[in-house]
Fold these 2 entries.
Entry 1:
Amino acid sequence: MAVQTMVQTIARTLDQEMGADERVVVLGQDVGKRGGVFLATEKLFDKYGPDRVIDTPLSEAAIIGSALGMAVHGLRPVAEIQFSDYVFPGFDQLVSQVAKLRYRSGGQFTAPMVVRMPAGGGVKGGHHHSQSPESHFVHTAGLKVVFPSTPTDVRGLLRTAIHDEDPVVFLEPKRLYRAVKEDVPDDPDFSLPVGKASVRREGDDVVLVSYGGSMAETLKAADALQEQGVSATVIDLRSLMPWDKRAVLEAVARVGRVVLVSEAPRTAGFMSEVGATIAEEVLDMLLAPPIRVSGFDTPYPYAQDRAYLPGPNRILKAVKRALEY
Amino acid sequence: MIRDSQLFQPFNDEPYTLVTESGEWVGTFDLDLDADTLLRMYRDLVVGRLMDERLGRLQRQGKISFVAPTAGHEGAHIAVAHALESGRDWLFPYYRDIGLLLAFGLPPAEMFAQAMATRMDPNRGRQMPSHNGSKALNIFTIASPIASHIAPAVGAAISMKVRGSGQVVVTSFGEGATSEGDFHAALNFAGAQGAPVVFVCENNRYAISVEYNKQTGAESIAAKAHAYGMPGYTVDGMDPLAGYYVMREAVDRARSGLGPALVEMLVYRYGAHSSADDDSRYRPREELEAWKRRDPLQRFRRLLEKRDLWDDGAESALRAELGETFAAAAREAEEAGPVPLEWMFDDVFAERPAHLEEQWRELQD
């Protein structure tokens, strides 16, 4: 085990995967000598050189589009988009080409590639360094979408994503990049399946479901509830496409009350899908309606970002509503 | 860095022409192709033209939903196909490349199967007609969003360079595509990487109805190459041999590590943009007639006739043979039968996930 932050884990996992398979290449802006603006590709350039750690022009369309061509020709590219807020010039490549290639070619051509991007708020970056774009990707059939929240999960899922035969959008909660250090497994074969949630706490009074950056506040809320004598099951979805419907439905059916926490804007956000599924599948087991705690339907604000993000207090209020329903 | 070329200087003012409309060789060098090669090229020109006509008929008969006519582009098509090594090099084409795909080796039956979305289509009936692809032949499956395949072509070329495979990529598109951001993104990256890719612009002067001078203020599409540090050539794309020789040089440059090039082929589409378009709303008939006098098939045929390689008898025999071949191919494609409903849920991912399994069950209920 090594005690590491999330961003250190990313660099280490990329290093191990590049060492194990020479088809794995990394590309993006500043991923070379600079080691990435967050240092997620630190030291890879010195070790693997410019043919495998490719500093690209400042063009997300070129990064994602060329990664697809590399994948089609037999490489295993891991592309970095510097901030998920900057993915949109490359969004057409993701939606029109990457997501649909296997389908539209009848399985002849595939896109085994990863597009990593730091996402979410909490770093005082204003709306162009803080957004949560996951629903755009989830709503595009053909992309797998993961959004882990711990160094260990990042390690296991990044390895799985690189080995996946399909394109994976790998969202990283940037405000947790250095927030926590934990013991991360050394085993180079350690991996976690895409599509499997993790139960972070077991409890009987309410289920809290979250993912990505909001997991931190959700766990804080669960701790506060514990002090009040309310026990919560906390589920970290980790993967959004596919998502672990069974884990959520089983917990909700058992407990009967659920609060869905995501910092993304509320309307048509991913938790709306989770809430609708709960209503469709286990309505008669519910003791209260599923309640969402989310960001608001505004552009991500700069000065008021602490109020925008669903903090423990807003989560606790929602839990109270669910308990008293 | 733009290096000097062998036969052709980049950024030429007048488009390169090697054969006149009357079939006269006017190149400053000798035509070094043997009779068999010339005859294969001519055959590929006719194949492209007749397939275009046949797909148009199938569309009018209601047997296929759509077609993007290609007549007038055949010179550019065979120029590209014959400059590449089929089975080794890669194509990232666009939807007006019927003749190119066939000359690169796509079996006619697959062309029909794709257009009719039958089980024989290796793309499993997933796309509208004129959107072929073949992994076996290194033909990247065509997509509708304009210019979206150009950056993937560059990525494949970078992979070829990194792995030292000695392969070359050609990607083709119309002049409208050069206005998209992805065109810039892709050529810029290719130039920075020295990737072995040749960009071929089939400039037919119309993006559906929008004319060249509304598309760009640039004197030529080839001129745009300068900014990316690669040579740009403007070629009479109705002259198949001019296209071929320029392509051969551009492909050789790329293969030997000298980097990418942009080749602009001046062509004209005889038909409408698609079977859903009415070009009489925006193009004068006289313009079409003037361009048809430069027809690539007629021009090439005259060259062959001047060399006693072709005559009326050979022409009728070829057309009769191709007519039968295509009729048989269309029958074979149709007899494969329609793609099954369940295929709708395959190939979203390598394995069908639980939620798609559920949705397939829901559809069957």
Entry 2:
Amino acid sequence: MADTLPSELVKVDPRDAWAPFRPNAAVPWNEKWVAHLHRRAAFGSTPFDATRSLRDGYEKTLERLLGGEPDADELLDVLLKTGQFLTTDTQLRVWWLTAMLEGKHPLREKMTLFWHNHFATSYAKVQRTRLMFEQNLQLRKHALGRFRPFLLEMSLDTAMLKWLDSNQNVKGAPNENFAREVMELFSLGVGHYTEKDIQEAARAFTGWHVDSRIDEDEDSFQFKPTLHDDGAKTVFGRTGNWNGTDILSFCCDKPECAAFLVGKLYSFFVSETKPPATLIEPLAERLRKSDYDFADLVKTMLGSRLFFSEHAYRKRVKWPVEYALGAIRAAAPGRVPLGDVLDPLAKMGQVLFAPPNVKGWRTGTDWLNSATLLARNNFAETLAMGAWERGRDDGVPQRASVAVSDTATATPVDFPAASLAEYSMAGSAAVAGSAVAMTFPTFPDPNGKLYVAPALQTPPPPGSGTIDPPPQKPPAAGSAGVQPLPKALNPGEVPPPTPEPRFDVSAPLLQPKPKDAAELVARMSVALAGETAPASVKSRIERYLLDGKPAPKELDTPAFRQKVRETLHAMMCLPEYQLN
Amino acid sequence: MTTRRDFLSRTLGGSSLLAFGGVVPEFLANAAAAAETAKSQDTILVVVELSGGNDGLNTVAPYADDLYQKARPTLALTRREALKLNDHVGLHPRMGELKRLWDDKKLAVVQGVGYPNPDRSHFESMDIWQLADPKRSLSNGWLARTIPNMRVNEAGVPGMFIGQDRLPLAMQGADGGVISLADRESFRLKLTGNAAPRKKLLEDLNAGDGPAADLSAFVRKRQLQTYTSLKKIEDALADLPSQRPPDRPGGLVPPQPPGSGDALNLGTLNGRLALIGRLINKGLGTRIYYASINGFDTHGAQAESHEALLGEVSSAIGEFFANIVPNAGRVVLMTYSEFGRRVKENGSRGTDHGAASCLFVAGAKVAGGLVGKHPKLDDLTDGDLKYTTDFRSVYATLLDQWLGVDSQAVLGSKFAHLPLLDLAKKADEKPISRS
């Protein structure tokens, strides 16, 4: 077997494509492929991740990513407990971003995100933080599990029932909304059912209702027998007194179901270039045979030769969450206030818990238009300048109240040394073997000592999509925003203040004392992208850094640090950096 | 294969400035200058998407039809309520501004618009309308296919989407042709510190060549396009009013001096259309604008939400035309929705997904009146109206007669023209009459 697959996708033998990957001369286990795996299976890599994965080797790294860190379960417990206290959609978003970054099981969160997009449900209609949280728990619980029970649980999920008008679906006057989406979006895809199938299936789901209690947070699924149509229905040519469970089961029985799901996962993990059906079919077959075991499917995909080939490399557009978290992990020396990431994410087109509609986000190149690209550029600016929580007009110095645990000062948060070290680029030595007892910050801490975001101390007005106080009134989640157009126009008139050390992206790059600009630029591009930038980019960046003059003897000066931040921003605006 | 040079020249509408120049900042400056000096008489099309499936039967109601009254025991508009267009149909009472346009013979009401074998999925049907292809075999939208065939005099971006969602499918796939304008803040490139050299660095880095088919080449194009447009839009927006005008109650708009539209609130259709009006008045050079308003999926308790939506649509369109009077002769606006709704109301005082519906075409050069037959209520398919006018006939008419683009090249085949436009009509340069 040759080391590389044929360069034309149609010529790739599916058996070779999905055969287990083994590092080889042509595709060695190096920074490039480490970064690739971490971009897909996780939310990018910190320098620590990269070093460790390189050292551990491919098998061990894949295994760790598939199963999470040893203490992931423990952390999850804490996350789930703290989640109980969330009261706003904003808090919920910060909570999930925290789980993605700190939960020690990024693949599980990545799959949760995949399913959130698949079973896309929006707070914009559900309007209950708790119900969205509980749905998120279901997504997580089944993220790497089996699809049949998952589909059933999602069909009984309260947020989903509200989202798709299930209470309006009654005997004699069926509402087709849910039945349609089950087939069109959740299991089969367009073209594998008829309008008649949907009408009949809707009858089978009649009476699958949400029981509204006095406290809507306590709403839950209830079957209303009197509203259920128990006549005969014909769905996919089968006639009988079917109920909703039967319909879901019929959907999963259809061979198209596995192909539909594999195709969707393929574009999430492997490539957004449409694959030939022959490439999908073996995995669909495998999925059917395993009775929809997603852990197996994900493992097969991520551990395949196709995944570690140019057919997959940078063949996806980063989702905004991937872009933002990946950049943070690669560049920020300390934790950043995740509440500050929400508004940029919205501008990039991705408000968690508020996909635009039941079809989920339009992904791929649809992520990129001039507004969303600009939002990426501007988010990169915040990150590069360490300008978190700036630009507020209310004069409240909120930064001081945000306790971050990566400094030596006393902080209210105890987090395992391991995770701290991951955030500190120089800390790799501290990691091995550290097993520090962990406590996770409780969100409504009476002392207001929260590391994550000031958002949690000053909840925004109901319905406001982000934590920023006026004058920027961001849109309600998922809806079009009501945003006054500010008058001020000329950016860059004020030189940026020096960022705090924990936000200073130049520090970890200059700390190892690169001998010249070339070494520095190489270090930057490997940190961001896992590989050296093309010569044309490198030379431009170097020229910018040196400004046409010979390299200064001492690189680590305030002025040079600023230039490093500026060039890091430019590198995060490169076209390639928008790709995953 | 598209080269970077091709792309740049298309971005700027064929401006020869670019043919040899490789330095982006210069072309930005040149393009901005060109836009200021160009004096254009290009026609403009504004497309307003009513998202969710607008209930055509309660927008243009067959109030005189007993079957209509019977099918909608709680929702039907009565003879008294409807703003009568003739003895059979009338506008929803909240659409006072559209009624004024009707009275001024500036509003065409196209009835029974649809397509064969209607799809009742929002996404599928929306895709069909936006692709103008019931088979959905194409991947770029009808406006995106229009743009490469359309002449743009000023070095402007041919198409612009005003909104905070991602680009509608109708405009997707027009490389170098479309930009999306979210809110003002989202359209400012933040570069602290050494702003000018940093801008140059960004542009230089994104100006590099790459394999044209490559995904990163696509991103590169998008990125450059973004930087190009920033400057122009900034100019167009520079003199926005700093105060948001107070809200006005009701569905009618009092007389407004031109340019006073509520362009500050881009969360409303009114704000979006007002901004389009300003950009038009600024001579931005864009020929296709697209805005949308959400919420027409009225499965339950329809009466309240639908009347608010129609009121917003009507007053926003009314105010839009009031604000672009100097340019009114070159602007046509059309509305559309992915489908209408079922004739019979459902058990929750709402309506479920249906088929044929109505749409509006408005403007000074529009031949006012009813166009197409109202579908019969005693001849339904699965409880839904049968279409009498293919929506592609609307597109074809606007392409051929208004934008000057061969409709067959865009739509793949010929569609009959509709009597929508009266190009000989003189556009009055005074505001729309208000009684």
